[in-house]
Amino acid sequence: MSSTIQNNTSLLEFGKKHVTAGLARSVDGVMTKGAGSYVEFGDGKVFLDFTTGIGVTGLGHCHPKVSGAAAKQCMELVHGQCSIAFTEPYLQLIERLLPMMPDPSLDSFFFWNSGSEAIEAAMKMARLFTGKQNIIAMQGAYHGRTFGAMAVTKSKTIYSEGFHPLMPGVFSIPYPYWHQLSLPPTTEQSEITAQCLNQLHLVLSQQTAPRDTAAILIEPLLGEGGYVPAPAEFLKGVREICDKEGILLIIDEVQSGFARTGKNFSIEHAGVRPDIMTIAKGLANGFPLSGVVSRKELTDKLKPGSMGGTYAGNAVACAAAVAVADVLKEEKILENVNARSKELFAGLNELRSKPSVSPVILDVRGQGLMVAVEFASPTGTSPYDSFVKPSAPARLSSRIAKRCQEKGLLILTTSVYEVIRFIPPLNITQEDLNKGIKIFSEAVEEVVREG
Ligand SMILES: Cc1ncc(COP(=O)(O)O)c(C=O)c1O
């Protein structure tokens, strides 16, 4: 694409001047091309991409079948509008997704554009289906930046700071993550589960009675809050409470869905049935598309027109998502995720076992190719955080991410803790994965040595 702004440097300066300061940016550059596991910048630099656009381009950049399907759809019908008529790709997508659902009861679909919008729709539906208002969310959760989604987002105050008041009727309990309970990282999952389920019982008897509680909203694998899988027993316990009290369970698979965790959806690891499930990101490999899935028996209560949106379920995005579903099957993506996941864990655990870095690595965790390494901090987020290690170097995660960048690997931090997250392409080759692990390991050793 040509620009009247002549070179890469002036394009960058133009962006800095005219793009809102409200956006954060981890690379000071202009991304121009993406192919498979690599991205290129305007200055010619090429990076191995372990960010996948924050868990979106799971099939790699510009997968030929996905981009090809979108290009073909562009020449047939770009926009039909979901309140005017069905489009073929919209219906084909439902056909592809039905057999992938974590429970056969999930048979009614609504597509929107972003994950935040899917969360908004899920909460509207929960209120309408139950005739109740309150939502219980998790301390540490991230669900988006629109007003409803912001109210249930509890991973960092930056998302809501200065924007209050938020949507009322939101209560929270700690996510089953040792930090949220001020417990050591070695705590048994059963102990964490018991503590969090106890908090849920307490909230239901002290803050929001079951008769006022429409839904409990959970990421089965906490994303922006630290890449922490919820113990299966915790999710099962929440399901039991929901069944007993007539509360709906909303499972947010926006980041963890579409083979990312080694199953189509992370909730399958626990074998728990969602009443409502939100999907986005990996669904369309970069085209803006999200979805809310529930049971027809519930969604039949919605009045026509109560759901919708000008671009909701856009035909081009749906055509791309149909191709994604086909590629997931044809290219045996789940098999690759599980094979590469074992190698990733092995590589990170090998790093962790090195005496030079082991004192500052607190945790290696995750599912599939949604994996995190957590480091110690000299300050923590509070003076009561028992994992503070005064001897640990400061700001390890951001310094390591920066060092990786200098060595040609794009990788992200996450949460208010010192966490680096791995979200490489789902179809990454063994060679590229090893290359990324090597760069990361070198960066960790160097930064820890520098202190
Ligand atoms: C679990 C989860 N839910 C919801 C969202 C919001 O999605 P979006 O940024 O598309 O609005 C995100 C985004 O990172 C997410 O990770």
From TrEMBL:
Upper classification of the organism: Eukaryota, Fungi, Dikarya, Basidiomycota, Agaricomycotina
Protein family (similarity comment): Belongs to the class-III pyridoxal-phosphate-dependent aminotransferase family.
Xref: PANTHER family: ACETYLORNITHINE AMINOTRANSFERASE, MITOCHONDRIAL (PTHR11986:SF79), AMINOTRANSFERASE CLASS III (PTHR11986)
Stored Pfam families: Aminotran_3
Coiled coil regions in record: none
The protein's name in its UniProt record: 4-aminobutyrate aminotransferase
Keywords: Aminotransferase, Pyridoxal phosphate, Transferase
InterPro entries in alphabetical order: Aminotrans_3, Aminotrans_3_PPA_site, Class-III_PLP-dep_AT, PyrdxlP-dep_Trfase, PyrdxlP-dep_Trfase_major, PyrdxlP-dep_Trfase_small
Cofactor(s) essential for the protein: pyridoxal 5'-phosphate
The keyword Ion transport appears for this protein: no
PROSITE patterns xrefs: AA_TRANSFER_CLASS_3
UniProt keyword Transferase present: yes
GO molecular function, one term: pyridoxal phosphate binding
